[in-house]
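[agent] plan:
  1. take the single chain provided in the ticket
  2. run structure prediction with default settings
  3. attach structure tokens to the ticket
  4. add a short note for the reviewer (M.T.)
[agent] executing step 1
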Amino acid sequence: MATSSKSTAEKSTTENGAETGAPFTEKTVAAAHEAIDRLSERVAKTEERLRGAANQGQQSWTEKQEEVRAQVEGSVSSARDYARENPLMTAGIAFAAGLIVANLLRR
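[agent] step 2 finished; step 3 output follows
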């Protein structure tokens, strides 16, 4: 019989040279290792693609956010300018809007 100090490959043979290991098990283990290696490569590639897409999405989101912020600032600036140039009209618009909101809330 094989001693415990021998390697796995040596353990599969007896002292007289007869094979004691299970070739089906060894083939199955080798196939499983190959499948896991292939799967690991595919997962790594997929993770890389997902990280790239997330990074692009974040950049796009930041750009859109800056565009919207610029539009809001422009709108607020133009509204302030209009209010400075037409104070009576602005007061009339605010009064009318207040009446409309009050009527809507009463119902």
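[agent] step 4 note for reviewer: The first helix runs from residue 8 to 11.
[agent] ticket updated
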